[in-house]
């Protein structure tokens, strides 16, 4: 462990040694606890960032976490009863390891961790699916292949648009052009689309970038592998984050502040002071904020001074999706126990209780009689407003339509999370919106002076995934270590970087201004031109 003075010796940039650097932003808060790096949030990104600091011999950091444990959106609870009376563990948040790794190819770091910690997980077989409508079993599974063919074609076209730096489209237009263009009244096709698109991104194709949606899918499922394994570990998925935290944090480590909610952050080019709801504060030379995009969008934290427009715009532009798993335990498994997935096409409403997934199936929690529904986005918002009893009634009515020949009893246990109202998350994970450039995304990642950002949403390649949070946490931690030690750092693909991250205060349109003319149907260009002049 390095003392502060030995750190000063390393820190030739002298950020720590030019007087009260760590306390700069808090000149009037001399009572604040001093540290070199404040890590805001103890999810995958925060724990990884702190570990990267530790790996670079920077031990003077403080992790500030709202909840009573680390793990963030890798979040489980106990549910129902096993035969011996003890409860099951279910994942309310992250559940799959998405993209594992191929021999000789790069491996998803989360897959590496799952092996290191012997996380119990099972191959999730997306071909093990039966389709239903309001009359019961209704085989429209051939549409799954029709969708897949179109999606593959869209991904190739998205690759062309990306490589040629052409304007983005929506996944909706991309799919339609590739031959998947279902009518709003074709409820079977709508259900297939919900399963194939919304279930992954938590947004409909209309609200998703074609280029970055396809690229993200490729980077995870073509680069690592196309397998998804579902975690069913009694310790919870967060066991891998607990395990990594334990490699550098002692039990009751004073550098981990649990049950501490950050409310105010004052920041400057010299340092950051963090104020917590309990009245405590921490002054640091640097801070890494890993709060979810939902937290940033919902004004949980007040920034002093306010974040610059380029940063605030990127925060408000990216999408925070909601993905809701609704759990039922019954006294028996009345659905086909050897099938993993059941897709329901509501006759009136896209996405209405569309997806059901059995945990009672071999390899998962056999004999548990647990099945859960998943809804996203608008259906999540609607169901989150219901009481447990109302939601349970709706779900049971759907199950009774799907299995008209079976007796569907009252469940013995029922629960679901309200992610949209969870004040340490405000939603589930981010999504790349239509027509949004890499520069706009970079603004989400870029630092504002001494205030840095990391997390699932700041990953251009793996947004939405636990492994995205890991890569981003590592990179931010390594870059700040480089700043503190006055050296450049090699980021993971071999590129060297030193100092601040770039940001783009001006994000340009894609049609040259001179094309705003009458021939293109634009009669008022002179109005805008003169207005612009007046403002300048
Ligand atoms: C329902 C759901 C399903 C998902 N499914 C998958 C999946 O199957 N596979 C997959 O790879 N990914 C999945 N994800 C995404 C994955 O969980 C996230 O990408 C990842 O956990 C994000 O890690 P993070 O460190 O960026 O953010 P977080 O885990 O959100 O960490 C941020 C931390 O900051 C804390 N915090 C927030 N506000 C404050 C505050 N004001 N003061 C102090 N602390 C605060 C939070 O408590 C949290 O611990 C899912 C997420 C959800 C919600
Ligand atoms: C820190 O070092 C350990 C040991 O080499 C390694 O397992 C871990 O992945 C490193 N962490 C980061 C964030 O690079
Ligand atoms: C997945 O399920 C399908 C349909 O039941 C089956 O044919 C296939 O063998 C399964 N794949 C694996 C790897 O279990
Ligand atoms: C539901 O499926 C049944 C059986 O395949 C079919 O006869 C019926 O037309 C379907 N309903 C709708 C609304 O498509
Ligand atoms: C996705 O992968 C396919 C097949 O490898 C490739 O042709 C395409 O360019 C990729 N698209 C994107 C957006 O990365
Ligand atoms: C946080 O900032 C707000 C607005 O600036 C202020 O009213 C509040 O007292 C501050 N809270 C703390 C704990 O500093
Ligand atoms: C489950 O409970 C129902 C009553 O709700 C009952 O009819 C049924 O026999 C029970 N099944 C088992 C396996 O105990
Ligand atoms: C990452 O590395 C590849 C080559 O391995 C290179 O082509 C690419 O430009 C690099 N990306 C960045 C962002 O530097």
Biggest pleated sheet:
8 strands, mixed
**Unreliable residue stretches:** 1-27
Oligomer: single chain
Give the overall pLDDT as a whole number.
93
Distance between the termini: 54 Å
Strand content: 15-25%
Helix content: 25-40%
The helix tally amounts to: 15
Q: How large, in whole angstroms, is the Cα Rg?
A: 25 Å
Q: What structural category do the secondary elements indicate?
A: alpha/beta
Q: What spatial form do the alpha-carbon principal axes imply?
A: globular
- Hetero compounds: flavin-adenine dinucleotide, 2-acetamido-2-deoxy-beta-D-glucopyranose
Q: How many beta-strand runs? A: 24
Write structural notes for this entry:
It is a single chain. The chain has 536 residues and is of the alpha/beta class. Helix content is 31%, strand content 19%. It has 15 helices and 24 strands. It has helices at 4-10, 44-55, 109-116, 142-163, 171-177, 187-201, 210-221, 239-245, 293-297, 309-317, 377-384, 388-402, 438-445, 466-484, 525-535, and strands spanning 33-40, 61-64, 76-79, 88-91, 96-98, 121-123, 129-133, 136-137, 228-231, 256-257, 262-267, 272-276, 281-289, 302-304, 319-321, 323-329, 341-344, 355-358, 370-376, 413-415, 429-431, 451-453, 489-490, 496-497. The strands form 6 sheets. Strands 1, 2, 10, 11, 12, 13, 14 and 22 form an 8-stranded mixed beta sheet that branches. A 7-stranded mixed beta sheet has the order 8-7-17-18-19-16-20, with helices on both faces. Helix 2 (44-55) runs parallel beside helix 14 and helix 4 (142-163) packs across helix 5 (171-177). The termini are far apart. The relative contact order is 0.17. The structure holds flavin-adenine dinucleotide and 2-acetamido-2-deoxy-beta-D-glucopyranose (7 copies). Keywords: FAD, Flavoprotein, Oxidoreductase, Signal. It is an enzyme of class 1 (oxidoreductase). Its EC number is 1.4.3.-. FAD binds at residue 262. InterPro entries: Amino_oxidase, FAD/NAD-bd_sf, Flavin_amine_oxidase, Flavin_monoamine_oxidase.
